[in-house]
């Protein structure tokens, strides 16, 4: 009898070694959700957004995108608590819409984060030049790529812990920034009372009307990309039915506080006509709007502090990007949509082959920035639209999931987490994402002469996605899954 028990335990261990580990705690899930939406888009890009559309226009754009992201998160949360898998929306699209759509979404998302990994390690080297201008960039890039790989290779818990602390640094910085900013507005820091005078400048608070607001929708949306990481992490959450809803409920209010309050503070303190608002990027941290506000408040070494914070944001994005793309690739391999070798799991529950392959591709994409700048820019632009395509996939999948759930005769009140305002949420999110995608470079069409090169560079990601979708559909002869079969497919799984 004892021998039988030993054999059974050994068999269970072997089975367990083939699966990822559910080691992400509630605090990890919360910070993954929050940290995913806070990065260089907030610390650097908000300045140019305010300069383009005025402080009021920026608030409208970021507020609208924030609401859209909230609906997307609730849609993803409903599906993730029902079926917590690492493939997330790629798997949901395959089960509730069409396997071809799931295939295209999965490869689209993997490509997006593999290229983003290259972007982040390139940015980290530029940031380090602030302190060590004489050290070759390739050394910093190799060092940070190794660190990002190691955090993902050790265990899912090491990723969760690193993201928790990276996100905490960003959260504390924003809270301090808002507090310092409010004191500066009322003249407690920085001398003079500012009040609301910068909101009443000529053509403020909205500069350029609707088209200016539309032009920064893409920037605002890009800033929020990463919030969907909580769906990818659902497959490794200790208690997805409890932890995912908790993380999602907090996302909207954090977005509202961090983005809206930060933009309001920047717009109140710095005139939107200030040329310095256009200069915030990793090449020039000194003119980040956050740095400018801290300096106006009289805080010494503001540039060094923000440089360190932005470095944590870059490393956070790189670590999360490698995590997300690895899990997506592993999940597609399990679905038969990627090579079987990528299904390999080590004893710590890490999809090691998928991790190594993604790291190599990210490294190669980075090398194009050194040896072929034009190729790098094409890769960057091709991945730029991927996040919005993924969001559209989430909206479509949730709409079909809810319809399928009702068609199967089940009561929606029995769902562990139920998204509010269905079907308004996914429909609104779908419509807004479509507007952002199509309007990404409307200037190329509205100009006196159509800018064909600009159109191609801006929209290259869209035909690549459609070609992947329809190529798989034609090759595999896939069909849209009937509603009454969707939930049954989950039961079989």
TrEMBL record:
One of its GO terms (cellular component) is membrane. The keyword Transmembrane helix applies. It comes from the Bacteria. Pfam families: AA_permease (PF00324). Keywords: Amino-acid transport, Membrane, Transmembrane, Transmembrane helix, Transport. The chain crosses the membrane at residues 29-50, 56-73, 110-132, 138-156, 168-189, 209-230, 251-272, 299-324, 350-372, 378-401, 421-440, 452-472. GO terms for molecular function: amino acid transmembrane transporter activity. The keyword Transmembrane helix applies. Residues 28-480 form the Amino acid permease/ SLC12A domain. It is found in: Membrane. It is a multi-pass membrane protein. Its main location: membrane. This is Amino acid permease.
């Amino acid at each position: 009898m004892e021998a039988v028990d030993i054999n059974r335990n050994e068999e269970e261990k072997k089975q367990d070694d083939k699966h990822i580990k559910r080691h992400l705690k509630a605090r990890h899930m919360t910070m993954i959700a929050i940290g995913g939406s806070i990065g260089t888009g907030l610390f650097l890009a908000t300045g140019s957004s305010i300069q383009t559309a005025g402080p009021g226009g920026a608030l409208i754009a970021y507020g609208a995108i924030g609401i859209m992201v909230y609906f997307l998160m609730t849609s993803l949360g409903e599906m993730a608590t029902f079926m917590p898998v690492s493939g997330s929306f790629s798997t949901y699209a395959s089960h509730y819409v069409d396997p071809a759509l799931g295939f295209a979404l999965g490869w689209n998302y993997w490509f997006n984060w593999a290229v983003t990994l290259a972007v982040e390690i390139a940015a980290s080297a530029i940031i380090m030049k602030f302190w060590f201008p004489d050290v070759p960039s390739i050394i910093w890039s190799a060092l940070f790529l190794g660190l990002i790989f190691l955090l993902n290779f050790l265990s899912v818990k090491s990723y969760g812990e690193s993201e928790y602390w990276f996100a905490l640094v960003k959260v504390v910085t924003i809270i301090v920034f808002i507090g310092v900013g409010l004191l500066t507005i009322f003249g407690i820091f920085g001398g003079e009372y500012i009040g609301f005078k910068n909101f009443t400048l000529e053509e403020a608070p909205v500069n350029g009307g609707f088209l200016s607001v539309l032009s920064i929708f893409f920037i605002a949306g890009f800033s929020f990309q990463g919030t969907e990481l909580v769906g990818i992490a659902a497959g490794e959450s200790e208690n997805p039915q409890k932890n995912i809803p908790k993380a999602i409920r907090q996302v909207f209010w954090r977005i509202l506080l961090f983005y809206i309050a930060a933009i309001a503070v920047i717009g109140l303190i710095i005139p939107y006509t200030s040329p310095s608002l256009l200069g915030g990027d990793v090449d020039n941290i000194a003119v980040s709007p956050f740095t400018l506000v801290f300096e106006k408040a009289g805080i010494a070494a503001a540039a060094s502090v923000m440089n360190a914070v932005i470095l944590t944001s870059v490393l956070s994005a790189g670590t999360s990007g490698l995590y997300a793309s690895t899990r997506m690739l592993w999940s597609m391999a399990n679905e038969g949509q990627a090579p079987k070798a990528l299904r390999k799991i080590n004893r710590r529950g890490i999809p090691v082959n998928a991790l190594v392959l993604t790291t190599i591709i990210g490294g190669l994409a980075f090398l194009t920035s050194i040896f072929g700048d034009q190729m790098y820019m094409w890769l960057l632009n091709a991945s730029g639209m991927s996040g919005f395509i993924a969001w559209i996939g989430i909206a479509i999948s949730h709409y079909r999931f809810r319809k399928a759930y009702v068609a199967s005769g089940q009561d929606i009140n029995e769902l562990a987490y139920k998204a509010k305002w269905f079907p308004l949420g996914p429909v609104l999110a779908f419509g807004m994402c479509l507007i952002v995608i199509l309007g990404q470079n409307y200037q190329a069409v509205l100009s006196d002469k159509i800018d064909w090169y600009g159109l191609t560079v801006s929209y290259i990601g869209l035909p690549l996605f459609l070609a992947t979708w329809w190529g798989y559909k034609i090759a595999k002869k896939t069909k849209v899954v009937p509603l009454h079969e969707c939930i049954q497919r989950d039961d079989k799984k």
